[in-house]
Specification:
With 276 residues, the protein is of the alpha/beta class. 34% of the residues lie in helices and 22% in strands. The strands form 2 sheets. The chain has a 6-stranded mixed beta sheet with strand order 5-6-7-3-8-9, sandwiched between helices. Strands 2-1-4 form a 3-stranded antiparallel beta sheet, with helices on one face. A hairpin with a 6-residue loop joins strand 8 and strand 9. Helix 4 crosses helix 5. The protein binds adenosine-5'-diphosphate (ADP) and magnesium ion.
Length: 276
């Protein structure tokens, strides 16, 4: 994807965002009464764009991703895929849930093709596609390994391969590096940065790590404390290819400070409200 760096991640080509979320509200019924997890969320993700969603814990990030993946229906609002609010979302997006467990009794390759199998792709073809991705993901030679024998970083890459294979062109990633130690996390961020340039997918990544959002994303949405709604939306003024050193630029430091201050404020509200 040599040309990717010069392509502005905007809706320029068609004007229609790949993902268009309008006025999404989500209420759950709980034994204690109604709980509003999301309040009037509106956001867009353009085709080919990498968008990060940052917010305090409990603000409804995972709820939103489950709605976008088609696993839940919002109480109010619409989600349009490529301009179609009626589009069936289930199976269209590659969805990596927050706790993405690999099946321990299946090999790495067997796990990676799980989504394709569900879609009815023939096993041989599914394996062939997975093998090609394994080579690119630094997993060659580990096709027959079982998840408990893989490192945490490798397991996440297998889960990511499964997500990429299962989805069409939209990836929904829910804190994919959240459970990893700092070093593995940093190296997987670098890896995703690199692989992203070649995948030509559209990505919505949930993270609570502002640095991660700035390093990877074209745009960042910051959500409020529960019920989550969009507090801030900022474009990340970094060209690609990117390096971590770029985050030390004065404009990036100022943006980081702004996002951290807003996040702190919302986290405080969460704590004060007993919401987490
Ligand atoms: N199925 C559910 N039933 C009732 N409440 C839920 C359900 N799923 C999530 N919640 C509540 O919705 C809020 C948002 O949760 P979640 O989306 O997991 O937040 P986040 O991912 O931002 O930490 C939390 O208060 C959570 O307890
Ligand atoms: Mg979550």
């Amino acid at each position: 994807m040599a040309g990717r760096d010069s392509i502005a991640p905007a809706t320029a080509s068609t004007g229609v965002p790949l993902l268009d979320v309008r006025g999404v509200t989500m209420r759950y019924r709980t034994p204690e009464g109604a709980l509003t997890a999301l309040a009037d969320i509106s956001l867009t993700v353009a085709r080919g764009e990498f968008v990060a969603l940052v917010g305090p814990s409990g603000c409804g990030k995972s709820t939103l991703l489950a709605i976008l993946a088609g696993l839940e229906q919002p109480s109010e609002g619409t989600v349009a895929l490529a301009g179609d609010p009626q589009a069936r979302r289930l199976g269209r997006a590659g969805y990596m849930p927050q706790r993405d467990l690999l099946l321990p009794w299946r090999t790495a390759l067997g796990n990676a093709i799980a989504g394709l199998e569900v879609k009815g792709v023939a096993r041989g073809e599914a394996q062939q596609r997975a093998r090609a991705l394994f080579a690119d993901f630094g997993l060659a030679g580990f096709e027959r390994s079982y998840p408990p024998l893989l490192s945490g970083g490798m397991r996440q890459r297998v889960a990511f391969a499964r997500t990429v294979l299962a989805g069409d062109d939209l990836l929904l990633l829910d804190e994919p590096f959240g459970a990893l130690d700092a070093l593995t996390r940093a190296s997987l961020q670098r890896w995703l940065l690199d692989i992203w340039g070649r995948l030509s997918k559209t990505c919505l990544l949930v993270t609570h790590d502002v640095d991660e959002a700035l390093l990877l994303a074209d745009r960042v949405y910051l959500l409020s404390a529960r019920p989550g709604h969009v507090r801030l939306e900022r474009r990340v003024p970094l060209e690609r290819p990117r390096t971590r050193e770029m985050l030390a630029r004065a404009d990036l430091l100022a943006l980081k400070a702004e996002l951290l201050a807003a996040l702190d404020e919302q986290q405080e509200r969460s704590l004060a409200g007993g919401r987490i």
